[in-house]
Specification:
Layout: H1 19-26, E1 31-36, E2 39-44, H2 47-56, H3 58-61, H4 68-74, H5 85-97, H6 100-104, H7 107-123, H8 128-145, H9 155-171, H10 194-222, H11 230-236, H12 238-241, H13 245-276, H14 278-292, H15 307-316, E3 333-335, H16 337-341, H17 357-360, H18 390-396
Parallel strand pairs: 2-3
Antiparallel strand pairs: 1-2
Length: 397
């Protein structure tokens, strides 16, 4: 990590300030350990170890380490936070609502939004990045609240992504003082702590949006104007699910954030990969033309007959996996997907975009290498923390 100073009390707090610092640790090997304040952080990039700890021992590794910033903004009710009774309630609700059967009912919405995305890219390719963001946000708005978003350049859409950027920035390593490792720093008055003022602003903006959408849905239900959205189901079963109004607001917000950020990031990465590797794009195009023809859109049913397209979908998930908060046990291990997907012992040329690897083995590993510790849904997480919106995201992609 260079010549940065390792302080006896603070440990690696002064070292791990940027994304690049963490990448140095992640790329060191299958197992790394460092001291952050009073905590010991273990970074795992070995698929077998992660499967053992995160899948098989999920009952003891499903927690998250404390995040004062996230607690301050969301009152501890955001579903990516600690393993609390509120988390369990929201998790049960998501499992009951986001079933494969329920998500399949919304395939017409996703298909319509996908057609709109293709139309936008065809007519204004220079704005593909924001068009993809609009696609992912409009899908989850439609599914969750029954209201689509037809244009990007609106206050509602641009405002959402601005707040998301600020919210994510506050959670980045080094964005705030090491308050979780050194809790006494939490006592700094707000007038001397800009990060506290930033947290308050993000909190107010998030609450106005997420709770406003829930109230909008509730008011429509009072007028008996149901549209079959997910949030209607949540509100109708609120007592059964054990969810109060505060939890319902943050539950909806968590689903919007998760569905929008991960889906759009994946598709944007896929577009960039296909631009950088035109030969892969050409092979996929030829396969789609051969199976589907030129007079209709592909459907999910066609995917079974398109092995190369399926391989591209799998390969695009490996180079730039989405960021996850660390996991927590009494020894506080961390997990990142990048190191696993870039293990040269498992994958040939892991830094290159090679969809063909998934035609040779189920999980893209080298022929003859045991890839049983991997699985196609690895990027959606492990154990009790596996993404509850996995089926919806897979359909969108």
């Amino acid at each position: 990590v260079g010549k940065k100073i390792w302080w006896p009390v603070f440990g690696a707090c002064t070292l791990m300030r940027t994304h690049e610092d963490w990448m140095l640790i992640i790329n060191r090997g299958h197992f790394s350990q460092l001291k952050i304040g009073n905590d010991t952080v273990v970074v795992l990039t070995d698929a077998a170890a992660v499967k053992e700890l995160m899948d098989k021992r999920s009952s003891t590794t499903a927690d998250r380490p404390p995040s004062y910033v996230a607690e301050l903004i969301t009152d501890g009710l955001h579903m990516v936070l600690a393993f609390t009774p509120a988390w369990k309630t929201e998790r049960r609700a998501s499992a009951a609502i986001l079933t494969p059967q329920a998500t399949n009912q919304h395939l017409p919405i996703q298909r319509a939004e996908a057609i709109q995305l293709l139309y936008n890219i065809l007519h204004s390719p220079q704005s593909f990045y924001t068009d993809i963001q609009l696609y992912s946000l409009s899908v989850i708005y439609s599914v969750l609240h029954g209201r689509r978003l037809p244009q990007y350049e609106t206050k509602e859409v641009t405002g959402f992504f601005t707040v998301m950027q600020e919210w994510s920035a506050l959670l980045e390593p080094g964005a705030v003082p090491p308050i979780d490792a050194i809790p006494i720093l939490n006592l700094i008055p707000e007038r001397w702590a800009k990060w506290k003022r930033d947290c308050k602003r993000v909190r107010d903006l998030q609450r106005a949006r997420y709770f406003g959408l829930v109230e909008e849905t509730r008011e429509r239900m009072r007028r008996n104007q149901h549209n079959g959205s997910f949030m209607e189901d949540v509100l109708e079963r609120q007592a059964e699910l054990g969810m109060d109004d505060e939890m319902a607001g943050w539950f909806g917000g968590t689903l919007i954030e998760g569905a929008t950020d991960t889906t759009s990031s994946y598709i944007q990465s896929l577009v960039l990969a296909l631009i950088a590797y035109p030969e892969a794009q050409k092979k996929a195009h030829e396969e789609i033309d051969r199976v589907v023809g030129e007079h209709r859109m592909p459907t999910l049913e066609d995917l079974e007959q398109m092995p190369y397209v399926r391989a591209i979908i799998s390969e695009a998930d490996a180079p730039i996996p989405s960021h996850r908060p660390p996991w927590c046990t009494p020894c506080n291990p961390g997990y990142r997907g990048r190191g696993i997907f870039h293990d040269p012992a498992l994958f040939d040329n892991p830094e290159d975009f090679i969809p063909e690897r998934y035609l040779l083995s189920e999980n893209g590993t080298k022929p003859g290498v045991d890839g049983s510790d991997l699985r196609p849904t690895l990027s959606f997480g492990f154990g009790r923390r596996i993404c509850p919106g996995m089926y919806l995201a897979q359909n969108s992609i």
